[in-house]
Design brief:
mainly alpha; 52 residues
Length: 52
């Protein structure tokens, strides 16, 4: 993907997160896959190192 495509995907995911946080009934249907798990671990690692 190029930069513009990454930003569009990120924007879409942010909107899904907003909908999840505003409604306990909202279901986006996004499966947690290996790619997403890797991204989550990378972000959590960055957050942990920033706290140190």
């Amino acid at each position: 993907m190029n930069v513009d495509q990454h930003l569009k995907v990120a924007q879409w995911h942010i909107e899904q997160a907003r909908q999840h946080s505003s409604s306990t009934e909202y279901k986006c249907g996004c499966p947690l896959n290996a790619h997403d798990e890797k991204a989550i671990k990378e972000v959590e690692a960055q957050m942990a190192s920033a706290k140190q």
